[in-house]
Amino acid sequence: MVFSFFKKSGEKMPERASARPKGESLPVAGPSGAPAAGPATEPPAGVDEDWDLDFSIASTQPNGGYGIEIHEETDPYAEIGEHAAILYANGQDAAARATLESSIQGNGEPGAVKLWAMLFDLLRLKGERAAFDALGLEFARVCELSPPSWDLEPVVSKQVQRVAAGSVVLQGVMAGDDPVFDGLLLALSEGQNRSLDLGRLAGLDTEASAKLARVLHQARRRGLSWELAGAEGLASRLTNRTVAGQAQEEPLWLLLLELFQYLGWEAQFEEKAVDYAVTFEVSPPSWEAPRHPVAPKVELALVEEDDAEAVPEATALEGEILQGNLKELALHLTPGEECRLDFSRVSRLDFVSAGALVNLLKTSDAGPVVIYHPNRLVAELMRVMGVDQVARVELSKH
Questions:
Q1: Is 3.60.21 the CATH number for 159-280?
Q2: Partner of 379 for a Cys bridge, out of 21, 121, 364, 374, CB 3.0 to 4.6 A?
Q3: Of 384, 385, 383, 218, which Cα lies nearest the Cα of 393?
């Protein structure tokens, strides 16, 4: 059975009848051609009299003389995403990138976030780390959200990555008397390593900024492996709050400079250090090369049955799926059994293969099919081609 992926264009709707004032009925001609008088028609019970109920029989029938013309509003962001996904599927990577970049510039609207995510995935697939990091800063500034991390490992397995023991999540707006700082100071005094998640941190008061800056500084000077996740977003927010010439909230400046140290952003550090020296008329901190890479520390742990984050074992596909070559995939469709497919390592799915995938899943007698973690470009093509109508597609949370 073969699907047709192109809809037939509908018949053209007839021209709309001329507009009439609300509530005015079409006149009914009498014998002499003049409008015939008649009693007013009462509206049906329970219907608001303000509604115009004067619809002719023709207007209720398809393509009738008084046909109602319906214009569906389209989502411009959906159209842009579809276009970029199709370009990428056809191997036009540069055109897909240009389409996305031109659409997200300064655009922090909720509907545009998907386009940002698609561009992040495209840069990751192309191996362009510098452009990815720059986009992360812009994303944090424009959308006020934490950007995804570069190192996104597939998690579909009977084993998943877990944040190591000693991980601390900072979230919300923190005050200086928050007990979390006591725990960090204790870990520092005992020489323990910590992994800090700053991605959910909305803000800090002056005292909290001073404590966090001091803890990070001392951990770095002692050579401890204190690793930061979500530091890029926090650095972007602090950059907007620290204005040259405005000698306010000095701890925020010191925390920002410390974050630059951990991130290894020397150019940003030097520029902000000059602003700091001029603003507060003091000598700025000196740049010190980071001793440890900035990456969340992870370890492997067995998945528990009731773990909401766990992903079942799945058949993994890798590389590019081109020209409808799905023979390998078809071998894993067992009649009556659920089929789980790991697409996290699939870099590209072309147009022909997406259509073949729909046909394969539609005609298969296998049980439910679940596709895990395709990149955003592949996922959007799946939506365009209707793969999500014959299988459940689950995106990663990055």
A1: no
A2: 374
A3: 383
